[in-house]
Input
Amino acid sequence: MKVTKLFTGFFESEKAGGLLLILCTVVSLILANSAIGNAYHHFWLMEFSGQSIEYWINDGLMTIFFLLIGLELEREIYKGELSNIKDALLPIFGAIGGMFIPAGIFLFFNYGTATQSGAGIPMATDIAFALGILSLLGSKVPTSLKIFLTALAVMDDLGAILVIAVFYTKTILWSNLLIAMGIYVVLLVLGRLKVNNLIPYLIGGVIMWYFMLHSGVHATITGVLLAFAIPFGKGGKKSTSYILQHFLHKPVAFIILPVFALANTAIVLSSDIGSTLTQNYSLGIALGLIVGKPLGIFALTFVAVKLGICQLPSDLNWKSIIGVGFLGGIGFTMSIFITLLAFDHQAIINNAKFVILISSLIAGIIGFLTLKFILPENQEQDSA
Output
């Protein structure tokens, strides 16, 4: 299976960012539970322009992250793994199974309770964290497995975006939403007219973000919408979309996501961990990520292949799909992000974050060990 230079650059950036995320999480947990824990936690709650620093990170900086996600989706649809429907079907079915089975497990424990709104939490995959773990296996990993996990995680992110837009919008101020969408239409027209200068898109994007922020729809959706307004062209190095995507890779991987991790993993560990882990929402999150993800990914891809809808690449087997399925259970940043939207009670948010970290760690370790023992040494890597 051929892999483009753009994919190689993306993979290298994501894996390095994933390893940095792990480091930032460890540092944040240590600081939050140290003698300066109160000061560290208070820092993220300090007000800036009427809102906390944490708020601006989650609603401002993360919009840039979702802009990159949108650009990656655009790339995958036009030139990547999702551009060929035959190749795309395997990760698409994997993503569908990896979203609905975990959500179903969560609802099994929480349906009809105050925490049922957290069903979206175990649906997402942290692409940077997952690729970071996969990269630790080095040359053992075949190209097709890297591409499968990347396409799967991108589809998971699309699902998470739709969940945020549909299920976590509580009240809508229609006047602001219509203004935001009006600006988006103008940007789409500019794209159709092949206006390649980035400035009008960035200015329009900021204005659209402001009105989206005050409409009730989560402002990070602006990033995804903006991505699809920016001209893709032929997807070459001189295309507007490519230039912006290439520019954003390192700031997102090495600044935005690490800052998000530092701000949102300042978790004070409870002395009663047993009680935390046995809450219904904790069981739903943990089993959704650790069991539901690999089960869903394996089950739907297996059924799709057996029905002749798609085929398994020749250098992969079902054991490797199960291993990648566990890596799909690394929800981390995306799951934490949805947690902030799903729950209002701070104690539940704090506990859910802790369970996400533990579950993501367990899923990552199982996935790493599974692939380490089943993958042969020194896979040949094709490049184009």
Remarks:
- The chain has a mean pLDDT of 85.
